[in-house]
Amino acid sequence: MAQRLAGAASQYLRQHAHQPVDWFPYGDEAFEQARLRDVPVMLSIGYAACHWCHVMSHESFDDPQIAQMLNENFVAIKVDREEHPLVDDTYMMATQALTGAGGWPMTIFALPDGRTVHAGTYYPKEPRGRTPGFSQVLQAVHEAWETKREGLEEQADMLAEHLAELGSRQSALLTLESREPAESALSSATERWILSTKPEGGFTQAPKFPPTWALKTLWHSVITRQDSALEAFNAAATSLEAMFLGGLQDHIDGGFARYCVDENWSVPHFEKMLYDNAGLLSLAARSTVLADELMGRASGDESERAQKLAGLARRSAEGIIGFLEEELLIESVANPAFAASLDADSARDAAQIEGAYYSYNREQINQATEALLARLPQGIIRFAPIAEDPEYYCFSLARMPEAAEQPVVDELVAALKTLRSARIRPVRDEKVVAGWNALAVEALCDAFILLEEPKALALAERVATSLWNVHFDEVSGRLARVSFAGRPAENNEGTLQDYAALAVAFLSLKRATGEQLWEDRANRLLARAQDFVDPATGVPRDAVEVDARISAQRSDVAAVSVLDDALPAAGALYAKALAMRAVQGMAESNYTESHAADLERARVLSAHAVALASEAATQVATALEVQTMISSPVHYLALGAWDSAQAMRVRKLAWALGISVHHAPELGGEDTLKIQPCREELCQMPVEGIEQLLGLLQVKG
């Protein structure tokens, strides 16, 4: 049996190389084998940090009898979803259409041309409740292939038609227009977020995923809405406090898990993803500055809450920066960048157990913390039991410690960290994903400006340089989506999300450093991104060249993602890059036709957010952020002073709201800060101080 996965660049694929299953990597060879052998395909789609992927792998793919069934009756393909996101998206659409749900591992049965005939997620080895055992599923699909093939073909045809229709609907979202102004759309979205906020934080029931992109956009309302600012703040603070205090955050090593399994945000699903931490760093940095800004304008309880939230957000941001640098940065290569993830599972007593590295039993807790807990009032520290491992507990905070309590909490955290230090760390997926690293670079630029954290900029520049050196081909102008050990993967061009996210990151670096190099590189990426746009419709696609199996599933539709999920939508990121280029260009030179063209293109690409703001606010949050930037009464500012405390306050506020700033010493203002607000080619008379600027930004609603 060929060991085709042993030399794979993907760590996830290599984890399966030892198995008795005759695995193929995703590609033409595997589907050609299925055609030649006249057997269906079984695709197992997952990623290296996925707990249930490991469970199914051990239960079923290590089993010789199941392996024999697979090898005799199927071509088995192992897919790293992070390496092939469009493959993952397409088969996830099929899985959700057939089952009403989705997740990983994803288990797909397909015809040799790639069209799906059956789909599911995790299958246990033996039947469990209403879920059949994996061997039963294999047998049922094999029998249908042998005796009911015509029915399978018809089912595949109907599903492909359905997926094509879904793709067309998604493309149609980009043509949605609304007569409602963007300002009203943000008010509608804000009202939806206020009403949807749960008492425990977040907008949904458990499992609790952080609504990162929605909360970033909600902060715009906190600062710019006259009537709903305090309601918006309290809604945002409820979620932020739950996320920053609870088990979602690793209070010991820094960084955040992907989600929490319970309503109260106390127990995480322990995998740590780069993209989550990038988004949460950006959110925490903004929350620090904007909560601090609100503190000076609010009164009573809201002012005190804002002050505490600002401190909590800063500590969370600092923890993420430390996590990125110490846990995810791959230093063993000439061009360091961030690894994709840390595994949910780790070793305890020779077994791989979810959360083993992060959890403590009662004896360990008492040994490390009993004396320290005696020095703290009850109601600060929380040790939450883990449902699937009930003798072990997850540490978090139940409330923000007071200033006098913080040193004791720090001692307690240090004691728990000492216990951890003797354990085997979770496995790190060494894959470098361009778009995810780009989100981290953008977030580090946010931290540099908003938190005045110099090492954040140094880290951003280092990783951005590596991405350019390794992932971008100067000759072809193409960007590789992933790299391994400092080498780009072959035949793996980035998606529109990769190009757009990296353009945003480079423009953020230009804005933070003033170095033209970064804008030039962003322009190279955006030039290639134009090739993703369908010339007939003007609608962007996720890929320039569509995989044959995706074409078979979706009738050659590879519509760009326009709705946020764990990542911001590719179409919205593309719009954001264009809007940033225009706004930054206006601040540095006269308003030109190219600036106008970028703004108009960004407006069109994000216009669906205005139409959907009241119905799907969370899903269009990034596009709504772009609409808010474009429609703002202020696109850029000229500042008379640059380094004074008041000037720094204005620069931070402007950065957080997407407003560009440039230094104009001729305005003067050494005694009283002079600020000249501008929109497109028109500049107003200078105003004095930040309060007058905030007055210009206020919108009723």
Task: Outline the structure in words.
Residues 142-169 form a coiled coil. InterPro entries: 6-hairpin_glycosidase_sf, Ssp411, Ssp411-like_TRX, Thioredoxin-like_sf. It comes from Glutamicibacter mishrai. This is Thioredoxin domain-containing protein. The chain is 51% helix and 13% strand. β23 (636-639), α24 (645-656) and β24 form a beta-alpha-beta unit. The protein is globular and about 85 Å long. The protein has 4 domains: 11-173, 3-Layer(aba) Sandwich (Glutaredoxin), CATH 3.40.30.10; 182-341 and 430-631, Glycosyltransferase (Alpha/alpha barrel); 358-422, Alpha-Beta Plaits, CATH 3.30.70; 636-697. The chain is α+β, with helices and mostly antiparallel strands. It has 25 helices and 27 strands.
Summarize model confidence as the mean pLDDT: 93
Structure annotation, total helices: 25
CATH architecture of the largest domain: Alpha/alpha barrel
The CATH topology of the largest domain is what?
Glycosyltransferase
Total number of distinct structural domains: 4
Shape: globular
Provide tags for this entry.
701 residues, Alpha-Beta Plaits, alpha+beta, 4 domains, Glycosyltransferase
Structure in a nutshell:
This protein is α+β, with helices and mostly antiparallel strands. 51% of the residues lie in helices and 13% in strands. A hairpin with a 2-residue loop joins β12 and β13.
Secondary structure elements and pairings:
Blueprint: H1 11-14, E1 23-25, H2 28-37, E2 41-46, H3 51-61, H4 64-73, E3 75-80, H5 85-99, E4 106-110, E5 116-120, H6 134-147, H7 149-173, H8 182-196, H9 212-224, H10 229-245, E6 259-260, E7 268-269, E8 272-273, H11 274-295, H12 300-328, E9 329-330, E10 337-338, E11 341-342, E12 345-348, E13 351-354, E14 360-361, H13 362-373, E15 381-386, E16 389-397, H14 406-421, E17 428-429, E18 432-433, H15 434-450, H16 454-471, E19 472-473, E20 478-479, E21 482-484, E22 487-488, H17 496-513, H18 516-529, H19 548-554, H20 570-588, H21 593-606, H22 608-612, H23 621-631, E23 636-639, H24 645-656, E24 660-663, E25 674-679, E26 682-683, E27 687-688, H25 689-697
Parallel strand pairs: 1-3, 2-3, 23-24
Antiparallel strand pairs: 2-4, 4-5, 6-7, 8-11, 9-10, 11-17, 12-13, 14-16, 15-16, 18-21, 19-20, 21-22, 23-25, 25-26, 25-27
